[in-house]
TrEMBL record:
It comes from Campylobacter hominis (strain ATCC BAA-381 / DSM 21671 / CCUG 45161 / LMG 19568 / NCTC 13146 / CH001A). GO terms for cellular component: cytoplasm. NCBIfam families: TRX_reduct. Homodimer. It comes from the Bacteria. One of its GO terms (biological process) is removal of superoxide radicals. This is Thioredoxin reductase. The lineage of its organism: Bacteria, Pseudomonadati, Campylobacterota, Epsilonproteobacteria, Campylobacterales. Binds 1 FAD per subunit. It is an enzyme of class 1 (oxidoreductase).
């Protein structure tokens, strides 16, 4: 039996793994389908993590986290978790995609969130063929070309700046006339001559052919239509919480959730189910910042250690 199962390998999951193993738990497994790192690995620039003075891309930033956590004994299982259940004897059962299951004394869920679909006609058809949610991953393919970005938050503006270093022009399309990003980022975007702001507008349709995206149709609040010939469009319009593993066989959540599908926790990252903890973007009121997710993971791990010790 596992001492602790950690589901998710982003900053919250890795931090939880570090504090749990360094805190004395011997059999700690992190379940993460791909390489650990989480959403931040797709970020083009990190400059606000305390103690890290140099600007870094997300992949470089997170690589040291993995090495550090594994050095203390954290194990990584590259398999998808289908759901988590608490048994009558107090143990947790982790149901895996391969049909097998693992037992654990405690569980930390740090599955985070995923980029939300924009709901634009043609988005699904051309996803991966000109439609992307990761400028760091796909921006290079549009070197010297024009691209469009949809969104008005920090991610949309940051990735617009990143793309402006690669592409000949970036059209930033937002449904409102003001942006939700931090003022310093907004100011950088407005001053960048390679970024054209298209506000009070939405993308109605993404058009293309066998080779991929070739045109997008934009409609402003007055009903005027504008067609842009671009081979790529990047959408950054929010995140969906990855909470499916917390549903039972009947589709009911096993712990308390808020109206947005986020896990309700206290300051110790405890859910209303003893031994079940949540950390990072999946929990209520998550600031969606790496430093906060890391703090969540540390708190959840310390709480899990205390819970396990008190079960004896």
């Amino acid at each position: 039996m596992l001492d602790l199962a950690i589901i998710g390998g982003g900053p919250a999951g890795l931090s939880a793994g570090l504090y749990a193993t360094r805190g004395g738990l011997k059999n700690v497994v992190m379940f993460e389908m791909g390489m650990p790192g989480g959403q931040i690995t797709s970020s083009s620039e990190i400059e606000n993590y305390p103690g890290v003075a140099d600007k870094m891309d997300g992949i470089s930033f997170m690589s040291a986290w993995q090495e550090q956590c594994f050095r203390f004994g954290l194990k990584h299982e590259m398999i998808k978790v289908k759901r988590v259940a608490k048994k009558q004897n107090g143990e947790f059962e982790i149901f895996l995609e391969n049909g097998k299951s693992e037992l654990a004394k405690a569980v930390i869920v740090a599955t985070g969130s995923a980029p939300r679909k924009a709901g634009i006609k043609g988005e699904d058809e051309f996803f991966g063929k000109g439609v992307s949610t990761c400028a760091t991953c796909d921006g290079f393919f549009y070197k010297g070309k024009e691209v469009a970005v949809v969104g008005g938050g920090d991610t949309a503006l940051e990735e617009s700046l990143y793309l402006a270093n690669i592409c000949s022009k970036v059209y930033l399309i937002h449904r409102r006339d003001s942006f939700r990003a931090v003022p310093s980022t907004t100011e950088k975007v407005k001053k960048n001559k390679k970024i054209e702001l298209i506000t009070n507008s939405v993308v109605n349709e993404i058009k293309g052919d066998n080779s991929g995206v070739c045109e997008i149709v934009i409609k402003n609040k007055n009903g005027e239509i504008r067609n842009l010939k671009v081979p790529g469009i990047f959408t950054f319009i929010g995140l969906d919480v990855r909470n499916d593993i917390l549903k039972d066989e009947n589709g009911e959540f096993i712990c308390e959730m808020n109206e947005n599908g986020q896990v309700v926790v206290n300051l110790k990252m405890q859910t209303n189910v003893p031994g079940l903890f949540a950390a990072g973007d999946i929990r209520q009121d998550a600031p969606k910042q790496v430093v906060c997710s890391a703090g969540d993971g540390a708190i959840a791990a310390l709480s899990a250690i205390n819970y396990i010790e008190n079960q004896h």
